[in-house]
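Re: Re: ligand-bound prediction request (bumping)

Still looking for help on this. To restate: I need the protein modeled with S-adenosylmethionine bound, output as structure tokens. Inputs repeated here so nobody has to scroll up.
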Amino acid sequence: MIRKINLKTGVLNIMQNLTELMEKIINEESIIYAVFSGVKNKSEKTFNKVTIKKVTIKDEVKHQFEYIYDKNVEHKNLDNDETFVEMYNLTKTYFKQVLINTVDADYHILISKKGEANIKKKAASKKAEVASHNRKKKYILNEGELTPFLIELGIMTKQGKIVNAKYDKFKQINRYLELVADCIPYLDKNKTIRIIDFGCGKAYLTFALYDYLVLKMGYNVEIVGLDLKENVIEFCSNLAKKLNFDDLRFEQGDIKGFDQFTDVDMVISLHACNTATDEALAKAVNWGANVILAVPCCQHEFLKKIKNEKMIPMMKYGIIKEKLATLLTDSVRANVLEIMGYRTQVLEFIDMEHTPKNVMIRAFFEDNTNIKKTVNQYKEFKNEWQISPYIEEAFGESLTSKLN
Ligand SMILES: C[S@@+](CC[C@H](N)C(=O)[O-])C[C@H]1O[C@@H](n2cnc3c(N)ncnc32)[C@H](O)[C@@H]1O
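Reply:
Sorry for the wait, this slipped through. Here it is.
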């Protein structure tokens, strides 16, 4: 049973208050994280630090204790009663200091040589997030659920198993669909949604998009995948036919010269090289697309152009300069989209271990006209780096009229 204690007084001085506090936060299951430090009597066998975090194992809440030694780490998962006993022992015998983050407050606890506890209560600094040991992450596409396009692309076997060598691709497709799922509120279900996927390549992600929007979400769509390469267009067209993806077609062509439509709802450009991304963004904005997803690639444009005396300590190293040029290019693109009235986000597409091309620019048209500050910042930014971005040429009048 929880005993009521008053912790509003800020500093409390007796060990009893510490046991009462521990009992309360354990019973309420409100501990997010705790760390015990400052070992009283260090010997080779004692740990240097102990941490606690909450985990869910087979739907039961436990506290995971991590004991950190000089050279190794041990774990124990304890229920509430065991947690109380263990926390009590750790504070009484081993440590001088405890920091406990709970849902409601943070507690900084100092234990004196006489065993008295000084507890300071502060505003909560961490948000609860229960880690689960058994719950598998539910993806949009799941192993075991037969998915024809994944089978045809060699990612899933006919028995529904993900091919080992294609597991990263499978994860990438799922991550992409999660990012697409957030766009649903911006796609009107009462009409046929027109989508262009620029530089679609072998179109794993284009097929995934069709599968998700049409088969899972019930949208009417017209999706066009465009690519320079004749062979990939032929491959993708045949596959779309085989899968009966009737409203998906592929065309060969250059982004810059693609003028088939005057209005498009969603524009996608994933890993299109260098300034091809700028061409795709320009088309998207000038067509009034509601949603834009772009994962830039090989951002060489600024590499030879940037100049900034103050940044020489970074720019004198080739690799750093290259990364810097990439960041500057994508910052320019994201800001330009804001200037064009879009709510713009820069997100991680997939972790670095899978591909170094991991930044997605996602933008939703919100007709935002409050852009003066962003315009001024953008101009100062260009001056600072002495650049005239190609994106301005690609956009033409629609952008220059906002900058002047
Ligand atoms: C790295 S692949 C990416 C394929 C796919 N979007 C993906 O992310 O899995 C880039 C593709 O963009 C195409 N591409 C590059 N520049 C293009 C342009 N200006 N017009 C059309 N396609 C282009 C290339 O032919 C290539 O197939």
